[in-house]
């Protein structure tokens, strides 16, 4: 491949989230976040109960369930050796999140938890000392549980101040060290996962058995509005504290690789309308105003959120510097079939034109050209730098008799996606980096299992929680290293 396609400073890297890797869920003062109360995002029922006297939700863990994120791969105590492996892999960037509830365990206290800050001091310094750029997500499905249990989460405007207090603490602390921030991971998953992505809980609840069924679309629009204001205010204070640092939005944009099943205009326009469910978020955070299509929708369905004076100016004045997004798969829209969504994006009709078989049982279609398509759509719409902060292949893998893991499919997946990124750059897209999701095996966000492995490094931990936590390099380790060393030319 032409050696000049990828810019010299292209950020080749890997991405994880605190809750999926760290473990130590209740150590050193950390209190639970929303994700600690579920076994994966797909699970309908969080392990919580309503306390009628105190009028608050409480944690109610189920002893028959295995909450793998609570220990995860124990990165909290292994980060030095794990980051050494990432260094050996040649990563130029490492994305993780700060677990908000390590810094402000309850979310509404005045003083941060020193132990939590000390952990991230060490972590961020280690990332930098090993030659990697830290890329930090402020909230990766990690709203402190107390804020949700006591205030109802993001439907409550008070959340904006709690979030900004946390942002201010970490922006000041990591000024000059972190150059790339993102506010909310996959904010456009809010409608699908209102509890985990939007930190929403009804207070008081109507339905004790299934409290999430009480969450209305209006709640979701209110939460998203409050998050937009929080995003704008975070950008405002970041510019004051560290004006060299950049703030990105983060969306799941597998949602944009949505193809009409037939030329039937109902399928073509229907697919387009479906993508607006995601464009809604990036339109507001990149263009700085609510698009007409949503204002009309609110009006016709009585769904308009409460907007306070000054909110719209903030949203207008403080837009994101770059677009961070995840891309895993594409899907096909047919007007006669209900679309579903999971952590990887929409699920529609099967696409007969995709030739590479998707790993089972998750069945996420493999469509590298979909990534080029998404990069082009985003460039045409926003003309902003694009950062692929998640892309990867999850498989059920085990070491063979010799202890080796030969993951040729992962190498093929990488090759095909990087070829398409190169084409998109040649198309004129300003792609600033590519982060592989889960460069070391971690807990799956969707299903909460270890079995779905994305890593170049295997971790010996199983779905039932057993395992030695030993790390083993997979075959793909040297392949990604070679890609990075050659700046994307040696595929
Ligand atoms: C995204 C999340 C990640 C991640 C990834 C893969 O939605 O931002 O947290 O885990 O999807 O999903 P899964 O873990 O369900 O395979």
Per CATH, the superfamily is Glycosidases
Tell me the radius of gyration: 21 Å
Ions, cofactors, ligands: which are bound? 6-O-phosphono-beta-D-galactopyranose
**Mind telling me the CATH class?**
Alpha Beta
Structural class: alpha/beta
How large is the count of helical segments? 13
Helix content: 25-40%
- Largest sheet entry: 8 strands, parallel, barrel
Mean pLDDT: 96
* Overall form: globular
Q: Roughly what fraction of the amino acids lie in strands?
A: 5-15%
Task: List the domain count as a whole number.
Answer: 1
Unreliable spans? none
Number of distinct beta strands:
16
Q: What does the secondary structure layout of this molecule look like, with pairings?
A:
Elements: E1 11-15, H1 18-21, E2 48-51, E3 56-59, H2 75-89, E4 93-97, H3 100-103, H4 114-129, E5 133-139, H5 145-151, H6 158-173, E6 180-184, H7 217-241, E7 246-252, E8 258-260, H8 265-287, H9 292-301, H10 311-317, E9 322-326, E10 331-333, E11 340-342, E12 345-347, H11 368-382, E13 386-391, H12 408-427, E14 431-437, E15 457-459, E16 471-473, H13 476-485
Bound molecules: 6-O-phosphono-beta-D-galactopyranose (BGP).
Protein model, in words:
The chain has helices spanning 18-21, 75-89, 100-103, 114-129, 145-151, 158-173, 217-241, 265-287, 292-301, 311-317, 368-382, 408-427, 476-485, and strands at residues 11-15, 48-51, 56-59, 93-97, 133-139, 180-184, 246-252, 258-260, 322-326, 331-333, 340-342, 345-347, 386-391, 431-437, 457-459, 471-473. It has one domain (11-485): Glycosidases (TIM Barrel). The protein has 491 residues and is α/β, with parallel strands linked by helices. The N and C termini lie close together (8 Å). Helix 2 (75-89) runs parallel beside helix 4 (114-129), helix 7 (217-241) packs across helix 10 and helix 11 (368-382) packs parallel to helix 12 (408-427). The mean pLDDT is 96. Helix content is 35%, strand content 15%. It has 13 helices and 16 strands. A hairpin with a 2-residue loop joins strand 11 and strand 12. An eight-stranded parallel barrel has the order 1-4-5-6-7-9-13-14, surrounded by five helices. It has a two-stranded antiparallel sheet with strand order 2-3. It is globular, with a radius of gyration of 21 Å. Residues 17, 20, 185-186, 252, 326, 343-344, 390, 394, 437, 444-447, 452 line the site of 6-O-phosphono-beta-D-galactopyranose.
